[in-house]
Description:
By secondary structure, the protein is of the alpha+beta class. It has two domains: 20-89, LysM domain (Membrane-bound Lytic Murein Transglycosylase D, Chain A, Roll), CATH 3.10.350; 93-289, Muramoyl-pentapeptide Carboxypeptidase, domain 2. It has eight helices and twelve strands. The protein has helices at 2-20, 39-45, 50-57, 85-91, 136-152, 211-222, 238-250, 255-261, and strands at 27-32, 69-73, 103-106, 109-112, 116-117, 124-126, 133-134, 159-161, 183-186, 231-235, 275-276, 285-289. It has a four-stranded mixed β-sheet with strand order 9-12-10-11, with helices on one face. Strands 1-2 form a two-stranded antiparallel ribbon. Strands 3-4 form a two-stranded antiparallel sheet. A hairpin with a 2-residue loop joins strand 3 (103-106) and strand 4 (109-112). Helix 4 (85-91) packs antiparallel against helix 5 (136-152) and helix 6 crosses helix 7. The longest helix is centred in the N-terminal third of the chain and has 19 residues, at 2-20. It starts with a helix and ends in a 10-residue tail after the last strand. The protein binds zinc ion. Residues 175, 178, 183, 185, 286 line the site of zinc ion (ZN).
Amino acid sequence: MRTAVIARLALVTATALLAARPASAEIQARLRVKSGQTLSGIARRYDCTVAALQRANDLDGTTILAGQRLAVPVCKGKASARPGKRVANRAAAIEIPLVAGQSVGQPWSGTLRRATRLPQGKGYLIRRPQRAYGAAHVVGRVRDAIASVRGDHRRLHTLAIGDLSAKRGGSISEHRSHQSGRDLDIGFYFKRKPAAYPSSFVTATAANLDRAATWDLLVAFARTADDAGGVQAIFVDYDVQGLLYDWAASRGVDEGYLDRLFQYPEGKSSGDGLVRHEPHHDDHFHIRFKCPPGDAGCG
Ligand SMILES: [Zn+2]
């Protein structure tokens, strides 16, 4: 009797496994994830669905990492699949306008003209609305990066947006830069939203940091580094770099990519990396954007 029960259980388990990973799924492509790619983006490109990619690759969530290998199944009957709401949202890409003449001078000695205001939006809190002004491309890229991360994670708490610049730019308290509409302070994602957050920034630790979402946030900015008006530099504490570096390395992210991205582990004064150490930046990223191309007044 007992043997029969066990045998039946084994059969059920085997059937469940087969159902979870259909043997019939034909593979149309095998690829290595590039920096900045998202599961929803890959699904769109191959006329597939996020759910089918998850099934074919045994993924629980939607986080994928640069360097990771993915099998893309042939997605027949795609129309009957129901892509998540956020996947649909992601399809609406935000335009990045490049307007000359807004950002004048340098981030630490400059002003802002005809400023663009970062609007209140879904998933983030602007801590000081009177300091939520930037150049148009900066505002566009900030909105795009946040939307991209939200499109790829099912559950995220509200993100803290710190200062950009004042409406007319110039010097503001607590900052040396943030004068010309090209700087942004932005908080991290946490496993559990700390009580003080997002009205205050909260220091990242190995225990509290949601490394998957914070990594994706970092990459959503970093992947624009080669684009017109994209990210020029990202400032964050060296130890926080270490938390993200080690996490990404453990997930199989290409080491060459990590070494181009971070100073870590070469030391705080290393000249390598888009992401640079800055004291007092263990509770937020400070993101600096490039000038629009050909804008002579922006430096
Ligand atoms: Zn800052």
